[in-house]
Write a structure and sequence with these properties.
- The protein is mostly helical.
- The chain has a domain at 9-116: Helix Hairpins.
- It has two helices and no strands.
Protein backbone atom coordinates (compact mmCIF):
# COMPACT_ATOMS: atom_id res chain seq x y z
CA UNK A 1 0.00 0.00 0.00
CA UNK A 2 1.27 3.46 -0.83
CA UNK A 3 2.45 5.86 1.86
CA UNK A 4 0.26 8.61 3.27
CA UNK A 5 0.22 11.82 1.23
CA UNK A 6 -1.46 14.96 2.55
CA UNK A 7 -3.61 16.49 -0.16
CA UNK A 8 -2.70 20.06 0.87
CA UNK A 9 1.01 19.47 1.58
CA UNK A 10 2.17 22.09 -0.94
CA UNK A 11 -0.06 24.71 0.69
CA UNK A 12 1.28 23.72 4.13
CA UNK A 13 4.85 24.05 2.83
CA UNK A 14 4.09 27.53 1.47
CA UNK A 15 2.52 28.63 4.76
CA UNK A 16 5.57 27.36 6.67
CA UNK A 17 7.87 29.29 4.31
CA UNK A 18 5.80 32.46 4.81
CA UNK A 19 5.95 31.92 8.56
CA UNK A 20 9.75 31.57 8.53
CA UNK A 21 10.12 34.67 6.33
CA UNK A 22 7.82 36.66 8.61
CA UNK A 23 9.80 35.52 11.66
CA UNK A 24 12.95 36.85 10.01
CA UNK A 25 11.20 40.15 9.21
CA UNK A 26 10.00 40.39 12.81
CA UNK A 27 13.51 39.79 14.12
CA UNK A 28 14.88 42.54 11.84
CA UNK A 29 12.11 44.98 12.81
CA UNK A 30 12.70 44.23 16.49
CA UNK A 31 16.44 44.90 16.06
CA UNK A 32 15.61 48.23 14.40
CA UNK A 33 13.23 49.09 17.23
CA UNK A 34 15.90 48.35 19.83
CA UNK A 35 18.39 50.52 17.91
CA UNK A 36 15.83 53.36 17.81
CA UNK A 37 15.22 53.03 21.53
CA UNK A 38 18.98 53.07 22.22
CA UNK A 39 19.35 56.26 20.19
CA UNK A 40 16.39 57.77 22.06
CA UNK A 41 18.05 56.93 25.37
CA UNK A 42 21.34 58.44 24.18
CA UNK A 43 19.58 61.67 23.14
CA UNK A 44 17.80 61.81 26.48
CA UNK A 45 21.10 61.45 28.35
CA UNK A 46 22.69 64.16 26.17
CA UNK A 47 19.73 66.44 26.90
CA UNK A 48 20.07 65.86 30.64
CA UNK A 49 23.80 66.59 30.46
CA UNK A 50 23.17 69.80 28.57
CA UNK A 51 20.53 70.89 31.09
CA UNK A 52 23.09 70.25 33.83
CA UNK A 53 25.68 72.37 32.05
CA UNK A 54 23.19 75.22 31.61
CA UNK A 55 22.30 75.10 35.30
CA UNK A 56 26.01 75.11 36.18
CA UNK A 57 26.56 78.30 34.19
CA UNK A 58 24.05 80.16 36.27
CA UNK A 59 22.88 83.54 35.06
CA UNK A 60 26.14 85.49 35.01
CA UNK A 61 26.19 88.22 32.37
CA UNK A 62 29.77 87.45 31.40
CA UNK A 63 28.72 83.98 30.25
CA UNK A 64 25.59 85.10 28.41
CA UNK A 65 26.95 84.04 24.97
CA UNK A 66 27.81 80.60 26.36
CA UNK A 67 24.35 80.30 27.84
CA UNK A 68 22.75 81.18 24.51
CA UNK A 69 24.91 78.63 22.66
CA UNK A 70 23.94 75.94 25.17
CA UNK A 71 20.25 76.79 24.80
CA UNK A 72 20.44 76.57 21.00
CA UNK A 73 22.21 73.22 21.35
CA UNK A 74 19.55 72.10 23.84
CA UNK A 75 16.81 73.10 21.38
CA UNK A 76 18.52 71.06 18.65
CA UNK A 77 18.75 68.03 20.94
CA UNK A 78 15.08 68.44 21.89
CA UNK A 79 14.11 68.52 18.20
CA UNK A 80 16.14 65.35 17.58
CA UNK A 81 14.58 63.79 20.67
CA UNK A 82 11.04 64.54 19.43
CA UNK A 83 11.86 63.13 15.99
CA UNK A 84 13.35 60.00 17.58
CA UNK A 85 10.25 59.51 19.74
CA UNK A 86 8.17 59.59 16.55
CA UNK A 87 10.56 57.09 14.91
CA UNK A 88 10.24 54.74 17.89
CA UNK A 89 6.44 54.95 17.78
CA UNK A 90 6.43 54.21 14.03
CA UNK A 91 8.82 51.28 14.45
CA UNK A 92 6.67 49.88 17.27
CA UNK A 93 3.71 49.96 14.87
CA UNK A 94 5.75 48.11 12.24
CA UNK A 95 6.75 45.47 14.79
CA UNK A 96 3.14 45.04 15.90
CA UNK A 97 1.92 44.73 12.30
CA UNK A 98 4.51 42.06 11.52
CA UNK A 99 3.67 40.28 14.78
CA UNK A 100 0.01 40.16 13.75
CA UNK A 101 0.97 38.79 10.32
CA UNK A 102 3.05 36.12 12.01
CA UNK A 103 0.15 35.17 14.29
CA UNK A 104 -2.09 34.77 11.24
CA UNK A 105 0.45 32.54 9.48
CA UNK A 106 0.86 30.44 12.64
CA UNK A 107 -2.94 30.06 12.91
CA UNK A 108 -3.19 29.01 9.26
CA UNK A 109 -0.29 26.54 9.61
CA UNK A 110 -1.75 24.98 12.75
CA UNK A 111 -5.11 24.67 11.06
CA UNK A 112 -3.50 22.87 8.11
CA UNK A 113 -1.49 20.65 10.44
CA UNK A 114 -4.68 19.67 12.27
CA UNK A 115 -6.32 18.90 8.93
CA UNK A 116 -3.27 16.85 7.96
CA UNK A 117 -3.45 14.86 11.20
CA UNK A 118 -7.16 14.17 10.68
CA UNK A 119 -6.52 13.09 7.11
CA UNK A 120 -3.67 10.83 8.30
CA UNK A 121 -5.93 9.23 10.92
CA UNK A 122 -8.57 8.56 8.26
CA UNK A 123 -5.91 7.07 5.99
CA UNK A 124 -4.66 4.83 8.82
CA UNK A 125 -8.19 3.67 9.62
CA UNK A 126 -8.78 2.86 5.95
CA UNK A 127 -5.42 1.10 5.76
CA UNK A 128 -6.23 -1.00 8.85
CA UNK A 129 -9.67 -1.83 7.48
CA UNK A 130 -8.16 -3.04 4.19
CA UNK A 131 -5.53 -5.09 6.01
CA UNK A 132 -8.23 -6.61 8.21
CA UNK A 133 -10.28 -7.44 5.10
CA UNK A 134 -7.27 -9.16 3.51
CA UNK A 135 -6.56 -11.09 6.72
CA UNK A 136 -10.20 -12.15 6.95
CA UNK A 137 -10.15 -13.29 3.30
CA UNK A 138 -7.01 -15.35 3.93
CA UNK A 139 -8.60 -16.90 7.00
CA UNK A 140 -11.85 -17.68 5.17
CA UNK A 141 -9.95 -19.14 2.19
CA UNK A 142 -7.83 -21.25 4.52
CA UNK A 143 -10.91 -22.45 6.36
CA UNK A 144 -12.67 -23.29 3.08
CA UNK A 145 -9.60 -25.19 1.80
CA UNK A 146 -9.43 -27.12 5.03
CA UNK A 147 -13.15 -27.92 4.76
CA UNK A 148 -12.65 -29.04 1.16
CA UNK A 149 -9.74 -31.24 2.23
CA UNK A 150 -11.79 -32.80 5.02
CA UNK A 151 -14.66 -33.44 2.61
CA UNK A 152 -12.27 -35.04 0.11
CA UNK A 153 -10.69 -37.10 2.90
CA UNK A 154 -14.13 -38.21 4.14
CA UNK A 155 -15.20 -39.30 0.68
Amino acid sequence: MKAFEFSLQKLLDVKEAFERATEARLAEATRKLEACKAKLKELSVRRQQEVGQIEALGGAKTQRHKLEAHRRYLDRIQTQLNAQIQTVVEQELVVEQIRQELCEYVRERKSLEKLKENERRQWLAEHKRKEQKETDEFAVNGFLRQQDMEMVADS
